[in-house]
Design brief:
Layout lengths: L17 E3 L2 E3 L3 H20 L12 H4 L2 H12 L9 H16 L3 E11 L2 E11 L11 E6 L14 H18 L2 H4 L2 E6 L15 H12 L8 E6 L8 E3 L5 H13 L6 E3 L8 H6 L4 E5 L18 H19 L2
Parallel strand pairs: 5-6, 5-7, 7-10, 8-9
Antiparallel strand pairs: 1-2, 3-4, 4-6
Helix pairs in contact: 3-5, 3-10, 5-10, 8-10
């Protein structure tokens, strides 16, 4: 914004007393007159300075998010077929995620562990990404998470376009968008959890394998306080999108997400779930990392063979990704 400044000279200008901590400055004579102009200029320039906004280097990062690109990633994962833990298809999915992250400049660490399940011992692998690759001193302060496995069904072909696919499309596209803003990206850690799905039913020992292990390792290393919050994405591609926030959603993050949705005129797509939801955010919250679960639990094809690409849309992925990016820029990463 340009402004026009008119300075009227006066032989004896009336000056305010200026305090610098406990030092009082009083000016006289010519010095006093010169100070009048400089002081007035400083006030006007300060008033004309742009207010702090969510823009970074003149870029509104939420406008950079592409639902079409996110959908392309989902298609690539779904093309691999069912992706339960320990399967060859999940190994291929893991390789795809790592390759894409590497292409965006993120460094990827594989967190491998073996756990007991109702199907016997299974090896799980979380993917943890930080920016930039090779940065040994990066200390991220916010988590963005997703699970990349699909539920195991003995008698059905479940490809998980929405449940196990959509959230990874959003997270990969978020990785690309953030990589264009290195200072922001360095403050984020991306985590792709393995083993979110329960083999029988969610208990303390079945389901959430990857997030439980990740949270436990953070706690053991004394690093939970490093993260001031997190967002979990899960089932965010439904064409009829209604993001149902769980009742245990951290209030501050919830307000920020609602505000971002309102600013982007998509608030109608965000509401509260009618009951509790157990998901990968649960172990993180229990460990002391306030994490919100962006999940559309009003999804008729959930855990059925009908959870296919025709049920999800680029528009829904764009809504969720843009709101999350706006929240990160407005509040989480300030």
């Amino acid at each position: 914004m340009r402004s026009r400044l008119l300075v009227l000279a006066s032989p004896e200008p009336v000056l305010p007393k200026v305090r610098f901590d406990r030092l009082e400055v009083r000016l006289r004579g010519e010095a006093r007159s010169r100070f009048s102009v400089v002081f007035t200029l400083a006030i006007v320039l300060a008033a004309c300075s742009p207010a702090t906004t969510a823009e970074h280097n003149g870029i509104k990062i939420w406008e950079e998010f592409s639902g079409d690109d996110a959908l392309r990633h989902v298609q690539a994962l779904v093309d691999l077929g069912p992706r339960p833990p320990g399967s060859e298809a999940l190994q291929q999915a893991r390789a795809y995620l790592a390759k894409e992250l590497d292409g965006f400049g993120w460094g990827v660490t594989r967190q491998s562990f073996t756990d007991d399940t109702p199907e016997g011992k299974i090896t799980f692998v979380n993917l943890i990404a930080t920016f930039p690759a090779g940065a040994s001193q990066a200390i991220p302060s916010f988590l963005l998470c997703s699970h990349y496995d699909t539920k195991l069904f003995a008698n059905a072909r479940f490809v998980g376009a929405n449940d196990g696919g959509s959230s990874n499309g959003v997270l990969l596209e978020m990785a690309r968008v953030l990589s264009k803003q290195p200072k922001l990206a360095a403050r984020v850690q991306l985590v792709f959890f393995d083993g979110e799905e329960a083999y029988v039913s969610f208990t303390d020992t079945d389901g959430l394998y990857g997030s439980r292990y990740f949270a436990k390792q953070l706690a053991a290393a004394g690093k939970t306080k490093q993260f001031k919050g997190g967002i979990l994405f899960d089932m965010v591609g439904d064409k009829s999108l209604t993001v149902t926030l769980p009742p245990d959603s951290p209030p501050t993050i919830t307000r920020g997400i609602f505000a971002a949705a309102e600013a982007l005129n998509v608030r109608r797509h965000f509401t509260y779930a009618s009951g509790a939801i157990t998901d990968d955010h649960t172990p993180l919250n229990a460990a002391g990392i306030p994490t919100i679960d962006l999940i559309d639990f009003e999804y008729p094809a959930w855990h059925t063979p009908d959870d296919t690409m025709d049920k999800i849309s680029a528009e829904s992925l764009d809504i969720v990704g843009s709101v999350a990016a706006r929240y990160l820029a407005d509040e989480a990463l300030k």
